[in-house]
Structure formats: C-alpha cells, structure tokens
Amino acid sequence: MINTEFTDFSLSNIFYASSASLNGGSLSLAGKELSEILGIRDKVHLISDVDLYLKAETESGYRIDDEADIVAWDNPQDRITRVILLDREGKEYTPEVDEKNSHSVKSIFEKADLIIFSSGTQWSSLIPTYMHKQFRELISRSKARKYLIMNNVEDHDMYGITADQMLDIIERYLDLKDITVVVNDNAEEAMRNVFRKIPVIHGRLSKPGDRKHIPEEIAKIIMKDYFELNQRYILVSDLDGTLWEEQGNDHEKEIGKKNLEKFNGIILSGNTFEHVSRITEKYYHGKEKIYCDYGNTYFYAENLEDRHRLSEEFLIEDELKDLLETYPEFQGKANLRGGVILTLKPLTDRKEKLRLINALMSEFQNKYEGRIAGRTSIDIVRKNFSKEASLNLILERDNIDRRKVLYIGNELNEGNEVCIRNTGVKALQVNDVFEMYIFLKTYNRIFNLE
Question: Which pLDDT band holds residue 323 (cuts at 50, 70, 90)?
C-alpha cells in the first residue's frame, strides 16, 4: 500500500479497506468495527466474506489482472467476456453464498418483499456477487418483487454493449423472467431500449445526458409498480398495526404520528371508540369519516360528540350479555362495545372458554359466533357482522365506486381482514407502521399530495 495513489479513492473506502486489512481481509469485521466507531447499526450484509482477487478475460483471451483496468477497459473491439475470482494461491475459486459469513444473508433474501439489482459497473462490482454458487437459485426462490435498474450510459467495462446485450450477460447469473427492468428514457440511446419479452417499466429518471439517476425518481417508479398504483384511489385503512402501533416504542410512535399526518382517507378500525377517538383527535387531520367497533360506529375527528351507528342489524341482544355473566368465569368481564361487539376479557384457556360460550349461545338460534381476539379476549358478534359487512355498507350508502377503493391493513393475509378481499376492492397488505409510511410517502409523491 506504500506506493498506492489515493487520489481516486473515497475517504470512507480508504478507512474501510484499512480496517479489513487489519482484520485479516474480513469485510464483515471491518463493517462491524466501523459501525462501532461511528455509533451506528451495521446494515451491510455480505454475500460471502472470502478474501479473493478479481481478474477478467476478454474475447481475444487477454487476461486483465488489475481491477482498476477492468473498470476502465473501454475497448469495444476486445470486450470482456467473463470475470474470475482467485484465491491467495492464484487458483480460480467461486465462493458459495454465505461462505465465511458471521450472519446469514440467505434469510434476508427469503424474508425480503423487494429486491433491487442496482445499475453500476457490472463486471467489477455486480457480477462478482451474482456469480456466487447458489445465488441464482436463491433469487429465483425468493417471493420478493425484483427490479433491475438499467445503466444510463455504456459503462467503461461494457463499452459498446447495448441494454439487451447487457441483459444477455446478466442472464448467465440471474433468471430474468420474474425480474422487472427499470429503464431511463433520458439515458443514452443504447441504454434506452429493451426489446426482450420481459417486464419493463420506463420513466424520466435523470436529467437528459446525465450519468446519474435521480434517486427519488427511481424510488417513485419502483414503488409505484410495486404497489400497483395505476390510479388515484379512495384510501380506506385499518388503524392499529397499520397507521398506528399502540404498543410500539418511541420510534414506532413517531412513525405512527407521521402516518396519521400523511393519511387522507377513511379509517376503518376494529377497536373501541374510546381508543380510536383518542388517537385520531390528537394526530389525524383528515376530513373523512372514522369508523370503529369494526365499522358500526362512525364519527369525525373534528366533532367527537357527534357519533352515529352504521346499522342496527348487527346489534347484540342484552339477554346474551346477561346470560354469560351468570357464569363465574365471565362475571365482571363482559363489555358491550358499540352495541355490536361483546368482549370478554381478561381470559385464560380461551379455546376451552370459547367452546363453553358457543354451547351457551346455541339457544339464540345460531345468530352469534365467538372469536379469539387480542391477547386475552374473546369477541362475540352477529354471524353476519365483520369488516367486510361494514365496508360493503359504507360503499353502498356513500355511493363509492369500489373499483376506486384501496383498502390497506396488516391482517389481510391472515386475521380479521381476510374477508375484505370478498368486497371486490383492491387490497394491500402492510406488515407494520413502517411499511405504511413507505406506502404513504410513495402515494403522496406520485399524486403530488404533499
């Protein structure tokens, strides 16, 4: 390193490489050390932590031994055909995914919702990752939505290569059939057109002729496709676990506040009026109706006293509550919410209690059903009452075209919102307040709402 010129290095890379050298060539340990020095979380996940040298081979058989020469090859008459990884003994060696990693990267791909393959210098930077053993299979198995960002210009390591030709090379390492290619309409001509029959999305993602993408435009076009936002919708959202996290830490609470500030639509919550009104009065600034008690109670944030019932058909008879409270297990534990949800809590051994409740309710002509809910509760409702029933009534009474509705919730795949899909509205599962925040930022930016 004594004779190395550092004029073309970023300062962060100099520190990173120095730390790796002091840690036996381990980039993982270097990342850990630098994160500790800077007091930040180490979010860099390696495909492997094997210390190797990168070489390349051209069409003529010429061997490029210096990585800097690969990056600046710039020779369309003798193009690079492959890169080679060599170990310290000079033997060709292709690592497996996760080889020598202290933390597995496989689980990250398995859990991912979204995978983005960046633009950049392919031969020296990206393909050495793609060529790892099992990488192709790992990506193919992932259920994540996948996007590959096309370069703006013919890079020096692939000078003379068109977008389609670049994809031919990348296809050696990635199965492109379920990857969407993101193309910049302001890119150089060779990078603008993809003629292969694969998914492609287009946008003006840089200033004309600029080598660099505009990050916000990249994020917008990908997230617009990911969320399938082909029109401006009437938004209907769950509250707890979606817009707001009642049991969350300080950070989650702050994100929840931002969600309620950004959200402009109908809130449809299964929770109580007391809870929903307390949260929305503080943080929600929209003018739309707010529904609670699975939708049968509604009000406006600006006037909490003006409460209404959506329908009388879902009301629970007082005799049912009286009957349950004659049993010691349920005395003092029954709370009738909004006239439509009879909640029994706190309870233990809820499966056994639910069997008892169902037996007791048989004398009511099979009108009711009990559901295990929350952490210690059982909810009893009319069999025809659910968020699906409430949403259908809301759409009918307010004359809302369900083709223009987008419902967002955290239990659409499993839980009390699965039934929403029966209404025919577009439904979007988000797993927490953070995903909701990403959605709202995307939605508001696309439709110029902030």
Answer: very high
CA dist 380 → 321, 329, 341, 345 (Å)? 10, 16, 6, 12
Q: Which residues pair with 58 in a beta bridge?
A: 80
- Contacts of residue 34, defined as CB under 8 A and 6 or more positions apart, other chains included, come to 15, 16, 19, 42
Q: For the whole prediction, is pTM greater than 0.85?
A: no
Q: Please, which residues have CB within 8 angstroms of residue 380's CB and are 6 or more apart in sequence?
A: 316, 320, 341, 342, 343, 344, 357, 361, 368, 369, 370, 371
Question: Which residues lie below 8 Å from residue 79, measured CB to CB, with a gap of 6+?
Answer: 58, 59, 158, 159, 160, 161
DSSP state of 317: P
CA torsion, points 381, 382, 385, 386, in degrees to nearest 10? 30
Distance CA(240)–CA(257), nearest Å, equals 12
What count of residues does the chain have? 450
pLDDT digits (tens, 9 = 90+) for 218-242: 999 999 999 999 999 999 999 999 9
Distance of CA 415 to the CA centre of its chain: 19
pLDDT score of 429: 94
Say how far apart CA 127 and CA 146 lie, in whole Å: 17
Tell me what the mean pLDDT of segment 404-414 comes to: 94
State the Cα angle at 172 between 170 and 175, rounded to 5°: 80
CB distance 154 to 121 below 8 Å: no
Distance CA 180, CA 368 (A): 48
